[in-house]
Amino acid sequence: MNDSNVPVQSLKMLIISTISAILLAFIILITIVGPAEFGIDPTGLGKAMGLTVLAKPLKQDTKEKLSCPPGEPLEGWLDVVVINVPAASGLEYKFHLKQNAELTYAWTTDGAKLYFDFHGEPAGDTTGYFKSFKETTDSQSNGVLTAPFTGSHGWYWENKTQIPVQITLKTKGQYTVKGLM
Prior knowledge:
5-stranded antiparallel β-sheet, 39% strand, 20% helix, alpha+beta, Jelly Rolls
């Protein structure tokens, strides 16, 4: 079999191809990756294409906003926490409770209704089992949970709006805070 029909690349063509690939990668780095990832836009093209917006940090970092609101008294509550649920997303906030321990809670949003599932998962369970205690859409909820088993108990909140929603959660009882999951 004769391989004379197979084109052979010359060293000159390989060097030209390599240099072209490096230049193209550099152009993509300067015009797209730099503005989108790092906010560096020496050409102005990233801003024109709307890529520099991607590099800006979120205005509200969910984990940084977990705190007791300034000036708000605990009023008999053991813990008061503010949780920000970003627009069009969801998150979970959990506590560890032993069987028969009580968790008294009250939470409200800053106005918007959220879908939520108040549920528990037994410690050590690997099947994915969980028990829902309350599942609905509302802007507030309160009550007392007596844990039916030892494990994680808490809420999954889903924000279906296009703006962040702030939740103020007040709790007391016999628990350990696990926080955001």
